[in-house]
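Ligand-bound model needed. magnesium ion.
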Amino acid sequence: MTEAPHIEVRDLSMAYGSFMVQHDLNFTVNKGDIFVIMGGNGCGKTTLMRALIGLQRPAVGTVFYDGEDFWQVAPEGQERLKRRLGIMFQGGALWSSLTLAENVALPLSEYTRLPAGRISEIVSYKLALVGLAGFEEFYPSELSGGMKKRASLARAMALDPDILVIDEPSSGLDPLTARRLDDLIVELRDSLGTTIVVITHELASILGIGNNSVFLDAETHTMIATGDPRIAVQSGDPRVRHFLTRGAA
Amino acid sequence: MPQDHDRRQWSLASSPMEGGGQELSLGGRWCLDQDLPAADEVAAGLGGEVRCLRVTSSELADWDSGFVAFLTVLCRHCAARGISVDQEALPAGVRHLLTMAAAVPEQKVGRRGQGSENLLVRVGTAALSLAHGAPEMLRFLGEIVLALGRLVAGRAQFRMGDLWLEIEEVGPRALGIVSIISFLVGLILAYLGADQLRMVGAQIFIADLVAIGMVREIGALMTGIIIAGRTGAAFAAQLGTMQVNEEIDAFKTLGISPIDFLVLPRIVALILMVPLLTLYSSFVGMLAGLIISTTIFDIGVFEYYTETVRALELKHFLVGLSKGSVYGAMVAYAGCLRGMQCGRSAEAVGEAATSAVVTGILLITIMASLMTILYYQLGI
Ligand SMILES: Nc1ncnc2c1ncn2[C@@H]1O[C@H](COP(=O)(O)OP(=O)(O)OP(=O)(O)O)[C@@H](O)[C@H]1O
Ligand SMILES: [Mg+2]
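Prediction:
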């Protein structure tokens, strides 16, 4: 890779019908960032994610991946850009008719020429990374909520994507597992150079691993801050400090 | 609203204070299992000159959410009219709950795109959605045709295993219901024919009626309708649930076409299996005709058999099989279309299943008429 992958969001507005969820978002994600999207419940974080990954056309504005305008390139170009993304949905979105192993293996068998034996090794390794070794043959309906989330992360990581987009990884996880997941995210960034965009409410994660962020406000329906959350909590906008200190400041 | 001061009943008394205020004293028992007064009526009962309301509860015996809900609504009405409410005399627990309920102001979002609309708006919306529906159906049809093209060219993201699973699900598992219905329909046909043909003394032609009727038309029609109810609804519910769980989105973000991966196996399975079920249905129907004719109407087994063989030609089978294929395609199309259009709730999945059956049967009926006319014109 010669060009550093970075994402640039320009004048982005998203709406459901006439309801404007967020408007005029402008921010950049640099290569190797752990970028946190934060904001109160219902402010539009998941909606922003859907616009970033090409599931929902923005009302106005666009997203650039390495200078390429996602919403302007031809469909083949969009497919190529999408293939650089790994996505973990808020609800897991595991394919219910496939076992965990098949869930993780499907992207591999679609986009690589690896023989079946190699694929199943990779699948076991990815599941082990998220603490689910031994659950290969389970169906999603046989897992707990937190396990589904972790399995979904394993699937998102299957193709070693350049950019990993994660919607609320730690909600529903016990504190130790949440901590392990944070460590895993940092490890992925450090070892593979993966850029990580994570939606989270977990203060420990935001301040512990995030090095860049955007804060969406539910009342004004736009962003009120972007940058390092650790700086924001000390000297940023009062509303952001209020949020990041659980209302103490 | 005078109530006796029984401690098992609520009481509410309102008296003016000096300085333009009003005192509202609440007493007795205020619980949800009682017929509590409406807060908006109490608020409306306050005179227009009242600027300050003091709520007291020295006589209060017992309270639960009913009491707090009453006060919440009362406070909201008072706030709207610029009346200040003095809550100092209320129990501490009630005051805390009221503060918490007021902490986050009511959001001015409303239910978007909902609410009561007048008839004209509803007619207009229905017409618009119908007008949008047709291009959407055509687009989906186009996508399927393209995907079938990819399948033939061997470039579709298609797993053989999924096709086998679907084939098993829609074919062999439907044999029971197809048998029962086809047998009963064959029986009805035989009785119907026997009654009419007896008048001209040509009862042996029951065999012709049942054979040609079942093979050309009724086998395919019955199978189509059974499959619409059984498999079309299942397709819509499966795909709809996948839509709700964002499974379809997960395919899209991976660049795997949900049409190739989910819709193609289902469509191909039905196109292959419905003609076979049609053939089976025709034989069961003819068997019923044979049993009825030989046991009730005194026609010999061999006689019935030779008459059937004489009546049936290859073209009848081809007509029946072609109809079966088309009906199968219609059911699969309707089921997958409604499933992929499904919204993001349990209710939407139910609607998708219902709509899949309705659309499927409608399409079958339309195609049945068109093909009958076409084959008649062609003289087949
Ligand atoms: N399909 C939809 N149709 C209409 N409005 C929607 C739809 N999905 C979400 N919304 C609205 O958009 C807003 C943002 O929703 P979104 O799911 O993006 O919030 P979020 O920030 O991810 O919240 P959470 O932290 O609870 O996950 C909400 O007000 C919600 O009511
Ligand atoms: Mg969300």
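The mean pLDDT of chain A is 89.
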